[in-house]
Sequence to fold (498 residues):
Amino acid sequence: MKTIKHIIGGVYSTGSTTETQPVYNPATGEQSGAVVLGAKADVDAAAAAALEAFPAWSATPPAKRARLMFKLHAVMNKRADEIAKTLSAEHGKTHADALGEVTRALEVVEFAAGIPSHLNGNFSADVSPGIDTHSERQPLGVVAGITPFNFPSMVPLWMIPMALACGNTFVLKPSERDPSSANLIYDLLKEAGFPDGVLNIVHGGKPAVDAILDHPDIQAVSFVGSTPIAQYVYTRGCAAGKRVQALGGAKNHMIIMPDADLDQAADALMGAGFGSAGERCMAISVAVPIGKDTADKLVAKLAPQVAAIKVGPSTDASAEMGPIITREARDRIAGLIGAGAKEGAKIVVDGRGLKLQGYENGFWIGGTLLDHVLPHMNIYKTEIFGPVLSVLRADDYKQAVDLINDHEYGNGTAIFTRDGDAARDFAKRIKVGMVGINVPIPVPVATHSFGGWKRSSFGAHGIYGPEAVHFYTRLKTVTTRWPTGIRKGAEFTFPSNG
Ligand code: NAD
Fold:
């Protein structure tokens, strides 16, 4: 059985502890490997390797760093199938879905390859007689990323290309549930020609995270995961004087207006609700049809489609949805469905207890549709993070908007309508960071930045895109006067053009 090791300064290591955690194939329920669990000493070693690599890496001209990004892009394209298979083997998502994840990661590498122009500063001539001012953005030093299980390749690659392109060196602490993808990312960088020590990987759980948050040489932390941990990481990291961006959980609503094309809306809900078994922070988990007629028709369209979702392992090319990441996560989702029914929600399609021939021990749950979900129910307030779509019927548009604005999360949302006025009003008034107009999963492309509002995100910056350039650099502004032969004598008033 394979052991997934730390990679520190270009060297694979089992680290300072003998502790490991099993890694599973969620389709079979069998253990496929064991990941080493790092402690403070391993984070210290990784931070030291990153610190050692920083002077040479940050002095490498942005154009050369960009060229390495082009090489990384080529290597990732060449090995895309392997990347997808590696992540699916531990996560469970379908191969086609995994390839989509790789494509989105490639787009971040493409944006990072434009780093020479992203780092362009400003220059103002003659801000005062004989004085010019310019600003530039400089790297922070060693930065770290802590990532979730649900995009084991893409989320680390939301961070690493941008952080490295800006001239920083990196310590990654990936999810311990599907850790092999992180080590593959290291291999890809190595093949592309990145120097050792620029990317270091420490596996583990809370002890490794805490060591990162407290480490004096780590200047900034990017976190993606659940809201309670995001808030913890933000608070502890900031208390240690770091720059922190911490992206958290979600409960994403989609409003279906009475004038919407209901077939299109139902298709959108199927993909956005059940793709990747609902284990996406941008999954639509609540459909909000406006009016009884819209709701009845929508549920009638969805029910047979949800019941017919083809669930299977990632190796089955016809599967539309894979297993859940762990047995515990599957049981938690099943428990939430049961509790929702007790609260009064109507189970229209029940995915609990699904068994697949030949995969009897896999962590399966089928597509589930709940109708008549109400705002006070726990099933509505909680992020389920599984293939469960709740229908919450609203009387009118205003009630639907208030519902979304009152929810603790504000990651993504969508409206399906033909009414431009309603769509424009929605985009303006909704308290959510990423909004789709007839687009169910409005994940911004890599030239924009990703980030939610409210308790879906802590910190001022979005992830990847232009916001990442700001997060991973600090601004320096230089004001210059060259001797001109004019001597004015000492000036004791505050410098101004007055
Ligand atoms: P998680 O919060 O359990 O884990 C995320 C990371 O935090 C992992 O690396 C994990 O090892 C670490 N961690 C876990 N418990 C910890 C603790 N007590 N102390 C310190 N570190 C700890 O999240 P997950 O289950 O891996 O991922 C799913 C969650 O991530 C969902 O809530 C989902 O919405 C969210 N997510 C958000 C985004 C986004 O961009 N907003 C993207 C993807 C996933």
